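Hey all, sorry for the wall of text incoming. These are the two entities for the joint prediction.
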Amino acid sequence: MNQELQFKTIVAQYCEVKPEDMTNDMRFREDLGFSSLDFMSFLGELEDTFDIELEEENALEVVSIAQALELLDKLQQEG
Amino acid sequence: MREYYPLTAAQKMHHNWILDYNTQQVSGVSVVASLKAALDFGLLKKCIQLEFERYGCMRIRFTKPDKNGEVKQYIVEKETRDIPLKDLSGMSLAEADNLMQQWAYETFDGHDIPLCDVTMVKLAEGYNGFFLHMDHRLIDSCGLVVMINDLMQLYTHYRFGSEYPKDLADFEMVLEKDLKKAGNEKRAAKDKKFWDDQLDALGEPLYSDIQGPSVLEEARERHGDKNLRAADIELKNLFVAVKDYVLEPEPTRNLIAFCMNHQLSMTNLLLLGIRTYLSKVNNGQEDITIENFISRRSTHDEWTSGGSRTIMFPCRTVIPPEMEFLAAAYEIQNVQNRIYMHSNYDPALIMEEMRKRYHTPEHTTYESCYLTYQPMPVKMDNPQLENIAQHSKWFANGAATKKMYLTVSHTEHGGMNFSYHYQTAHLEEHDMELLYYYMMRILFKGIAEPDMTIGEIMEQI
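and here's what came out:
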């Protein structure tokens, strides 16, 4: 499974949208219905799955799937 | 072979209350769900028995404490007990509620025993349904709502041929995942650092009481410590009274609109209302802590696995009087978002750290108010039952571990219900009247003029 699909499979556990129907411009709160708690739990799951460390400030600025994927790439390159 | 598991942090929270208060009553949760319709009780009984199979958390049992006092949980494969039917149709709905309230006070005493009772009930005015009485270590209120809906979907499937309910997540599998997550040392270290950093930055919290500063002053005298910042917990007289207030649909819509327009969650707005009241009655105290319950249900599996996932964390904010209402709401939201990120942590460890740092005396607390905001109504969400009147009611367990515990939920008619559970040892209904009255004044003043400062609001209301 490629990373983007793995990422979207995790997102799908928190919402009603299937990974294959997700587009990268979708926003977590407005389009996927994440609550604040959902989003924060999701970030924790990302950290565990991809072995990354999210800075809270950066993480809270993430609005869309594209931004999250971009941050994930950046953190993996740095790590 | 049967697996034995340790308790999760949420289960431990209830378990520790049972030990501290020396009664299982503090861990009871009860609800009646009924429909104004003739029910086939034979079929309902079969559906309840099937629900025991589907919803693994209903079959949890706890072992006898070992020599270190540690208790483990396990899930029995089958529950074979009968589901009784009680005919309460000869009494009014209010009288039946009073009787069921008595049932809610009953305790589950012992180890290796079932901790879940279901009774089918015939009620007045043609209502029929079932009464559920469980131990909170097995389930929280969200879990109960999911169970009630699943049960009624089973019933309407067999009775009317509607779609069979979707599979529920396996409780044991989700429990294993939770315990694995809790055992992640790297994550636990990050969570600990978050809570420790808060204490490093703000120091020891300061108690604030609904009744004003005299409560802390009395605790200081009792402990012979004029610098004490925590107040005593009532351990003996746990009797709780409940006072409900309903906010009408129109003002409720205004609160919701304010939250939506400013991307705020209702929980944070309510926390601001309570903390501003506490600040007002405690001579403008800026450092206020409120315990806020969160239900750790985010994924599909977490939503449908049942279990006790609700846990409380201290929401501590320092808000000066010159801060504007909206900025204060964002400040709370900011704190809460960070708490959510670290909500896998065991809150008992936060208290343990405070006791270590500040030598907080045993059986004292920094908080007098506890909040639960429940976005889910207890309503059977089933198209087959859409046009049928329902009667549902939560029953207090009658033994409060908390001085004041506010549950805010949405009503079927678009309003909001503010249910204040308060220890009668120290509080009266009038205290709740004042709290509700001022909370509403604060919130509606604030949403009408969000750039007004907290100090101005406290002065004007």
